[in-house]
Each structure stands twice: as C-alpha cells, then as structure tokens.
Amino acid sequence: MKIVLATGNQHKTAELRAVLAGEGLRAVELVSLADLGRDFPEPAEIGATFAENARIKATAYAALTGFHCLADDSGLEIDALEGRPGVISSHYCTQGLETGMARGERDERNNRRVMHELEGVPLDRRAARFVCEMALASPEGRVLATSRGTMEGRIGTPDRVPRGAHGFGYDPLFLVAPDFASTSAELEPKAKNALSHRGEAARRMAAELRRITAV
Ligand code: IMP
Q1: What count of Cα atoms within 13 Å lies in the side-chain half-sphere of residue 181?
Q2: pLDDT for 66-109, tens place per residue?
Q3: pLDDT higher than threshold 80 for residue 12
Q4: Looking at residues 51-72, what average pLDDT do you find?
C-alpha cells in the first residue's frame, strides 16, 4: 500500500518516517507530498479539534492525490491558558490567521506570545501537553483508522527556557515530564520520538496499518 504523508513540514515528515520505519511495516511504502512532484491546494483547517483537522487533511489529500493518505494535526495545550494555543498552535501569534510568515519567524513569535501570556505564573501551574491526532483515509474518502498520542510537560519559566537546538515550534519552551529537567528541543530526535505525542500516535497508527494490510 502506498501512503502519502500529508504534511509539508519536513520535521514532522522525518519524525513520522523514523517511527514508522522502526515499526517494520514492509507492506507500506511512505511517500511525502513533495515526492509526488506537483503542488496540491492546502485544505482549510477549520476543525474545532485536532482530530477533526486530521480527518479533513487526510480525506482532502487522499482525494487530490488518488492515494491512501496519512495526516496528522498536532499542537500544544496549556492548562493555565484554558487549552490555548490548541488548534491554532502554528499561527498563535496571528490569532490563527495564516499570513504567509516564514515558519522560523512564526515559531519565534508564537513562543514569545505564550511566554508573555504566562508571565508571573509559577512553574507548578504551567502544565502543558503536546497532542497529536492522526487519520488514515482511502482515495474514496473513507477514514480507515485514527490514533492519538500525548506528551506531558510544563512551559518553562523565563529563567529556564528557551533551551535546545533540536525539534521545532514550542520545543525550546517545553520541559518534559516527569522530571522537567530538559526541554523537548534538548532531546536527540530518537529520544524525542520515543516519548513524543507524534511517536505515540504513529506507533498506534502502525498497529492499525498492520491490521489493515494483513486483511
Ligand atoms: P500543524 O502543522 O497544523 O499540525 O501544527 C502543529 C503546530 O503545533 C506546530 O506548528 C507547532 O507550533 C506545534 N507543535 C506540534 N508538535 C510539536 C512538537 O513536537 N514540538 C513543538 N511544537 C509542536
């Protein structure tokens, strides 16, 4: 089964490929949207939850490419901010509006906004989690499987973060549970995959794929 990974984010593609390769799925060939050699219009991520957005992306790209499609939607939930940035994690600095800002600048501004909104909140009230939802859709538009993963942590205080050069997005701010000693940007890619929301969701999806391709 050829499966298109429906993301333009190279970090996410690399993380997903590494996890799924480690699961030894011999009947599955993973390709990225870029591998298909043409541009596809991006579906609007209008879902109210990560799960809805994953379904929207998987079904849209499966229809557009004609292949089975695996999509993920992920983001950060901060308890002290009532779950924000949530589904608008990637465009938090512009209230969810896509302005065409480069990813690097966007990440930096998103991080500054989160740190500003948490000003004065002590470390033990800065609980947060990364969430990842995945959906696999067939070219006919059926959702064949879904999976979810989470990674618990805290957003560090300004004396502790930002730290670390790996990963992307909010990683330099995110102190990983249970000891909150290092940020997810300080974890080597392999270590992050073993702990991360995306790793967990991907391993669960791999189990679904094994079941589907065995039929
Ligand atoms: P998506 O590309 O719409 O799924 O948006 C995900 C956004 O959530 C990213 O742009 C990041 O801001 C944030 N995010 C998701 N996963 C991670 C992660 O593993 N590390 C850091 N930030 C993440």
Answers
A1: 3
A2: 999 999 999 999 999 999 999 999 999 999 998 999 999 999 99
A3: no
A4: 96
What is the average per-residue pLDDT within 117-125? 98
- Domain ranges in the chain are 2-214
Q: How would you label 25-58 residue by residue, b for 16+ Cβ within 10 Å and e otherwise?
A: beebebebbeeeeeeeeebebebeebbbbbbbbb
199 Cβ below 6 A of ligand 1: no
| Unique residue bearing structure tokens 């059926």 | 142
Q: Is the CB of 167 under 6 A from ligand 1?
A: yes
Looking at residue 173, what DSSP letter applies? G
Using CA positions, which residue lies closest to atom 7 of ligand 1?
Answer: 90
CA–CA gap between residue 59 and residue 140 (Å, rounded): 8
Name which CATH class applies to 2-214: alpha beta
> What would the pLDDT profile of 20-46 be if each residue is shown by its tens digit?
888 877 778 888 898 888 899 989 889
Question: What strand order describes the sheet that includes 29-32?
Answer: 29-32, 2-5, 68-78, 127-137, 143-155, 174-176
On the question of pLDDT at 215 being above 70, the answer is no
Give the nearest ligand 1 atom to 184 CA: 20
Specify the ligand 1 atom closest to the Cα of 171: 21
Assess whether the C-beta atom of 130 lies below 6 angstroms from ligand 1.
Answer: yes
